[in-house]
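Sample entry (506 residues):
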Amino acid sequence: MRYLRPARTTLAATAAATLLASGLVLGQGAASGEVVPTTCSPTEARRLASAGDNFADGCHLPGQLLARMDGVTAAAASGEVDRSPDMRLVGSVPPAGSFAEEGAYGTDLAFRGRHAFGGNYLGFTVYDIKRPGKPRRVAQVVCPGAQNDVSVHGRLLVLSVDSSRSDDSCRSQAQPASEKSSWEGIRVFDISRPARPRYVAAVETACGSHTHTLAPSDNGRNVFVYVSSYGPASDQPDCRPPHDSISVVKIPVARPARARVVATPVLFPDGGNAGTTAPLGSSETTGCHDVTAYPAKDLAAGACMGDGVLLDISRRARPRVIDRVQDQQNFAFWHSATFNNAGTKLVFTDELGGGSAPTCNPLLGPTRGANGIYDIVGRQLVFRSYYKMPRAQDLTENCVAHNGSLVPVEGRDIMVQAWYQGGTSVFDFTDSANPVEIAHFDRGAISDTELVLGGSWSSYWYNGRVYSHDITRGLEVFRVDDPLVASARKVRMRAFNAQSQPHYRH
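Predicted structure, serialized as tokens:
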């Protein structure tokens, strides 16, 4: 394992650290069991904690207090839009029914043919996107279980369930993880008829399934699912520490009801990053948040809380760590990863503040809550630079690096990425040391007076358009007309999962 050389600390970042050190620190950097003052009421803290993910960590960043400070001018005021001339909104589908209620957060996206599948804390939605400018909802499946991150493979759809339930059915109720009978894991649906999904299987996994990644076998008969989860506790029978592993589920494509856990490889035999108690410090590694596979290259990348790892997945059921890095200076929570098409670079994201904190402002600077860009040299990760969307956000906007995907541009490395209320950014990292933004779409704050959870959860490129799944606004479709992405509009895919990268051929 290797450590990064610390980047030079900016005055703004130093000021932020000093402010937070005065008793308001991120929970991600706190030692286990430490009592940390919060800016949320007990009710708000419970609501965010019950939502899963890391949203409750935002209570440990002084959102409302920072909102009363002067000196930060957001790129867009509340009710306004700041966008580059080459990016515009062309279509949308707002949430409906129970998915429009408070707490029914929109989550990840996956694609197959003319359909997009959007996760939601209450289930998932099927969208017809044959006409990107006029997308429409064709099915809405109610099946509670945060986060319900979604992937598709052929006729199968996989959902991640990381909230403790009374059983594996769609009628289950929330139940404490301290009860042995509680269930968490993955659910599998048959989407042969997209407008009528059919529930066909469920597999319980240790500590549930916060996210998952598909890695099909070479012969196509099986799809392996790498299940990422974290946050063990001694009072949880199915999720006790140490939890230094992922779960590997094997799903026979022809007989998905036979899906089962076939391995639980330990990625951190030494326990991983121990974490730091410094303000905005590095997270303790107790599992992985996300794994991105690149099956064509037999590689995967693990974003594992306090560690970033490069994996060999040539034996699908036995992923093996081949390199590992930590960034004690600037990364708080290794969240996700994206390869370039050549498999020679990796972009890791840092979800500073858990997704519910206002981290896109001069107080925290350009290297916190950002991307870390690495070259892969001789199967080792070599740090090159950080990239953070360059526009300041209001201190009532949750904003941090989140889910994105590669744009299939021949001869260049370009990525589109969600930043919650920071909107969507398209950036070029062909020069790993000097990434630059080429397009963006950014709305003003949902609220001028309080920190409200919202914004784009995932922004992905699919068949010539950018699709964003917004936490509260549903599906949004964007067109990017920058000349740098013109060749990408010619690339057509039959299916797409951002965490299971395809190899593009022009």
